[in-house]
Amino acid sequence: MSDKEEKKDESGKNEGPVGNSVWLLQWIRNLIALFIGDTGSGKSYSAIRLAERVDPNFSVARIVFTVKEFLDPVNSGLPKGSVIVFDDAGLGINARLWQEMSARVFGMLTQGFRYKQILTFITVPDETFIERQSRKLVHIRLKARTSRAS
User: Fold this and answer.
1) Structural domain tally of the chain?
2) Per-residue pLDDT tens for 7-33?
3) How far apart are the first and last CA of the chain?
4) Which residue segment(s) compose the domain that 40 sits in?
């Protein structure tokens, strides 16, 4: 069975807790999920793999690192249920730089783009690294427990 294939039960539904979770996420719209963990803990990998499972059209073009890059897919007319991964968001929407235009724009955007029904996966080492307004809008927090062995 390849990485892209999923194990299905007799009814054609995904088996197991991961499969059921992915199936459920496909019906949630306007989700902002925060992937938190130490450097090397697999935050980015987890966010990207989940994005691939939830959104069949997800591609590397929707992995962004700045607010400017985030605006491109948001304004491109993506279908409802599409996923954007904002990787290393502590750099792009830094809490210490909350007054900068990019952080303010991201805060306003996350409040007002719910009608687009896009899922946003944000990765960051610590929740406090991103500006407060965006942090308060997060629906789900996923925390990596351990780093990969060296």
Assistant:
1) 1
2) 444 445 444 444 555 655 656 667 889
3) 28
4) 29-143
Whether the CB-CB separation of 124 and 34 falls below 8 Å is answered with yes
Query: At 9, which amino acid appears?
Result: D
What the block records as the tokens of 100 is: 């900068």
Between 137 and 94, the higher pLDDT residue: 137
**The pTM is what?**
0.74
**94 occurs within a structural domain:** yes
Determine the Cα–Cα distance for residues 31 and 44; give it in Å rounded to an integer: 17
- Within 10 angstroms of residue 121's Cβ, the number of other Cβ atoms is 28
In 3D, which of 132, 114, 120 has the Cα closest to residue 62? 120
Q: Radius of gyration (Cα) for the chain, nearest Å?
A: 16
d(CA 83, CA 46): 13
Contact (CB, 8 A) for 52 and 22: no
Sole residue written with tokens 């979770």 = 21
